[in-house]
Design goal:
With about 450 residues, the protein is mainly α. It contains 21 helices and two strands. The protein has helices at about 10-25, 30-45, 55-60, 75-95, 125-140, 145-160, 165-180, 190-205, 210-220, 225-240, 245-255, 260-275, 280-290, 295-310, 315-325, 330-340, 345-360, 365-375, 385-395, 400-410, 430-440; strands spanning about 100-105, 115.
């Protein structure tokens, strides 16, 4: 970082060129207030005149407030525009400005910009091919299907092999592995280790990657069950990349499973404002409604999701779960049978069928379905003990459900950290052994809010 007392005037031209590129970038289109503020801050910083970069003076000099009447305590224009400026800078450097030779940074809590010289990345055929592979990996990543996630992982790995210094390739590997374990297509261990290693490699290449830090925070919560440590990491990531939709989304998911529903909703809305058509965001809005036991709102969000993506596995599965929570065994059975017929190699359809049979009072059919599933998966695919616990709960077999939940906690099943808020486990909540089990695994009670 170039501090005021060590700033080399010879670099002023590079900084001004970067300022011009930033102001012309898509992230700043139409943002006149942030453009004026950024220009003013950079020019004053280059002139060494940082003493005037105070909220009281910026309101007057940049935003035209009256010198006699401007009161920063009552008028938050400078703070609001500075926050928006940080978000736009983060979006710019996460996209079109990722290869800029100089990065303009506005630290949180102050108005003195800093200028970071970046190491110029080599260019050439291999780099171009790697960037193309990353773009294709991101395309495959978006639907969240097993086939898409596995294709994405292959593309990102190929990109990292071609260009080991490409941070986006390593971040893609981390996201693909996180998706595979999050959707229970792979066991959490060792998948989480692969994701962590790739995210740490991303940060080694670019220490300012807030999205990589957010991914590590999500794994710390989901795998290590350390919400407090994860929250601190999320806050650090937010300071680096306040404009990252991925970061707001990850934080929202963690907040919803610890019962901070209102805050989770606010973070989801922030992410949606940046990525209005992101399918996983819409699915998690519905999931938040389910955790709140607001069945009607959940159905509305899920129907909107399926309008955009009728084949969404997560959307269809959540609608089946909604039928279960509402006591509609026939509706759940129909939905989950359709999923199992289409995707027989995935457990989610069969687990749903077993739960629907149990809800309908046909325990024998539920047991047959689970036994068939276990035979089909043994030695071939991983089967989530958490999912099996959901069936045991529906069957009223609390002893079996608790044994399976203990196994889920020990194996760091990726759904385990949802246990405090999951409606599918509501019948266990009156059993004191359930709370004791979660506390043994360092799962604190939900905070609610």
């Amino acid at each position: 970082m170039l501090a005021d007392s060590h700033f080399d005037p010879a670099l002023s031209g590079d900084v001004r060129q970067e300022l011009a590129r930033v102001l012309a970038a898509p992230a700043f289109a139409g943002a006149k207030g942030q453009q004026r503020l950024l220009s003013h801050l950079v020019e004053r910083r280059l002139a060494g005149d940082t003493a005037v970069l105070k909220e009281s003076l910026l309101g007057i000099e940049v935003f035209g407030r009256s010198a006699e009447r401007f009161d920063p305590a009552a008028d938050s224009i400078v703070r609001v525009e500075a926050r928006r400026l940080r978000q736009r800078l983060a979006r710019h450097y996460a996209s079109g400005g990722r290869d800029a030779p100089v990065e303009i940074v506005l630290p949180v809590g102050g108005y003195i910009p800093e200028f970071r010289q970046r190491t110029a990345r080599r260019v050439g055929p291999a780099c171009g091919a790697a960037a193309e592979l990353v773009a294709r990996g991101n395309f495959f990543l978006r639907p969240g299907t097993e086939a898409g996630l596995r294709k994405a992982l292959v593309r990102f790995t190929e990109a990292a092999t071609l260009d080991p210094g490409l941070a986006d390739a390593h971040m893609g590997i981390a996201r693909a592995w996180t998706g595979l374990i999050g959707m229970l297509f792979e066991p959490a261990l060792p998948g989480a280790r692969h994701a962590s290693e790739a995210a740490e490699r991303t940060l080694a290449l670019d220490p300012q990657r807030g999205d990589a830090l957010a991914l590590l925070a999500s794994l710390r919560h989901r795998i290590d069950l350390d919400w407090r440590g994860a929250e601190r990491m999320y806050r650090q990531a937010m300071a680096l990349a306040p404009g990252s939709a991925y970061l707001h989304h990850a934080l929202a998911f963690s907040m919803m499973v610890v019962g901070r529903f209102d805050e989770a909703h606010a973070e989801l809305q922030m992410a949606r404002s940046m990525e209005p058509l992101e399918l996983s965001l819409r699915a998690h809005e519905a999931l938040l409604d389910l955790y709140r036991r607001d069945w009607d709102a959940a159905e509305s969000h899920l129907q909107a999701l399926l309008d955009l993506s009728p084949d969404s596995l997560l959307g269809r599965s959540l609608l089946g779960a909604l039928d279960l929570y509402r006591g509609d065994a026939a509706g759940a059975l129909e939905r989950y049978r359709a999923i199992a017929d289409e995707l027989p190699h995935l457990s989610i359809g069969w687990i749903g069928i077993a739960q629907a049979h149990a809800l309908a009072g046909d325990a024998a059919a539920a047991h047959r379905t689970v036994n068939d599933l276990q035979r089909r998966f043994t030695g071939r695919r991983w089967l989530s003990p958490y999912q099996l616990a959901l069936v045991a709960v529906r069957l009223g077999d609390h002893d079996a459900a608790l044994r399976l939940m203990e196994e889920a906690g020990g194996s760091r099943d990726c759904n385990f950290f949802c246990a405090w808020v999951d409606p599918g486990l509501d019948a266990l909540r009156a059993d004191p052994r359930f709370g004791e089990l979660l506390q043994r695994h360092r799962m604190s009670a939900p905070e609610r809010g």
